[in-house]
Amino acid sequence: MFSFGRGNKTTLPSKDEALEGRDDYAFSVPETHQVLGAPLKPPYPGDPETACFGMGCFWGAEQLFWELEGVVTTAVGYAGGHTPYPTYREVCSGATGHAEVVRVVFDPDTVTYDELLQLFWESHDPTQGMRQGNDVGTQYRSTIYWHTPRQREIAEASRDAYQRALDEQGESEITTELREAPEFYFAEPKHQQYLAKNPNGYCGIAGTGVSCPTEFDSS
């Protein structure tokens, strides 16, 4: 992962400070998932739900989800910032406000949103703010972008439950950004299913070692 441009990469830019962007993609979005063979873009087969998570570098995060039974398809991209249709270089500059995220399309009859959240919390460190390990910058922040009010309830309950688990181990406060899902912009083709194409490629994913409760009180 590399960067260029903006000096302070750990402070989110305002809308006025962000790069202008463009009206459409500067590249062609692949039609199908390299591993699952499902479409990357809607419509999707069956009646799936969609989730969106940021866990630092999206290469390793995406693989965690596509390996999960019940996941229909995944895609990496950018969300949560101001710049429309950004490029990877622009996001890495810190001047778009976007986070690197994974879109997860899943069959709720096979894998629940609760189970996705458990994988999310346990597979990265949600207490690090604008970084994840050695990857430093606003694009590496921890995020949950919910798509329905029910997802919001479950996500908030899971956050509170995991914070209690972290507190018991003397860990820090969760810094995860939790908000309604903004516009999702696909990343370039080479980043989609990156670790399937590059099995020995970089993966900065690492958890805290603290287990997440499997049941959340979201009533």
Question: What is the secondary structure topology, with strand pairs?
Answer:
Elements: E1 49-55, H1 58-66, E2 71-79, H2 88-92, E3 99-106, H3 113-122, E4 131-132, E5 135-136, E6 142-146, H4 149-168, E7 177-180, E8 185-186, H5 194-197
Parallel strand pairs: 6-7
Antiparallel strand pairs: 1-3, 1-6, 2-3, 2-8, 4-5
Helix pairs in contact: 3-4
Spatial ordering of strands, largest sheet: 7-6-1-3-2-8
The overall pLDDT, averaged over residues, is 94
Amino-to-carboxy terminus distance: 41 Å
CATH homology superfamily of one domain:
Peptide methionine sulphoxide reductase MsrA
Q: What is the tally of beta strands?
A: 8
Order of helices and strands: EHEHEHEEEHEEH
Identify the CATH architecture of one domain.
2-Layer Sandwich
Low-pLDDT ranges:
1-7
| Strand portion | 15-25%
SS class: alpha+beta
Percent of residues in helical segments?
A: 10-25%
Q: What is the number of helices? A: 5
Would you state the CATH class of one domain?
Answer: Alpha Beta
- CATH topology tier name of one domain: Peptide Methionine Sulfoxide Reductase, Chain A
Q: What characterizes the major β-sheet?
A: 6 strands, mixed
Overall 3D shape: globular
> Compute the gyration radius: what is it?
16 Å
